[in-house]
From TrEMBL:
Its main location: membrane. The keyword Lyase does not apply. Keywords: Cell membrane, Membrane, Transmembrane, Transmembrane helix, Transport. Residues 1-86 form the ABC transmembrane type-1 domain. It comes from the Bacteria. It comes from Paenibacillus violae. It is found in: Cell membrane. InterPro entries: BP-dependent_transpt_permease, MetI-like, MetI-like_sf. This is ABC transmembrane type-1 domain-containing protein. The keyword Cell membrane applies.
C-alpha cells in the first residue's frame, strides 16, 4: 500500500536530494583535500591539486598541463554530469513521460 500510494510521489524528491548530496560531497571532498584538511595518505582529486600547486616548478615548464588540468576536469565533468542527470530526471517526471515499470504520473 505504501509503495503504490506514497512512493511514486516521494521518489523524485529522494532521487533529486541524493544527486544533489552526491554532487556536494564530491565538491566538498575535493575542496577540503585541496585546503589540506583531508587525510594525507588518501589519494583524492583535491590532494592531487594541492600537490601540483605546492610545487614551485609546476608553472615553469609544461607540467601544469598534466598535474592541474586532469583533476580539475574530472571534478568539473562529475559535477556537470550529475547536474545533467538531475535535470533529466526532473524533466522526465514533470513532462509526464512514462517511466519503465510505472504508469504516467501526469497527463
Amino acid at each position: 500500500m505504501l509503495y503504490h500510494h506514497l512512493l511514486p510521489f516521494i521518489w523524485p524528491l529522494v532521487r533529486t536530494k541524493f544527486i544533489i548530496a552526491f554532487q556536494t560531497a564530491v565538491a566538498m571532498e575535493a575542496s577540503l583535500s585541496f585546503l589540506g584538511v583531508g587525510n594525507p595518505s588518501t589519494v583524492s582529486l583535491g590532494k592531487m591539486l594541492l600537490d601540483a600547486f605546492s610545487r614551485t616548478q609546476t608553472f615553469l615548464n609544461d607540467a601544469w598541463q598534466w598535474m592541474i588540468v586532469p583533476p580539475a576536469l574530472v571534478i568539473l565533468f562529475v559535477t556537470v554530469a550529475l547536474a545533467l542527470i538531475e535535470e533529466k530526471a526532473v524533466t522526465a517526471n514533470c513532462s509526464g513521460i512514462e517511466l519503465p515499470g510505472k504508469e504516467r504520473l501526469f497527463g
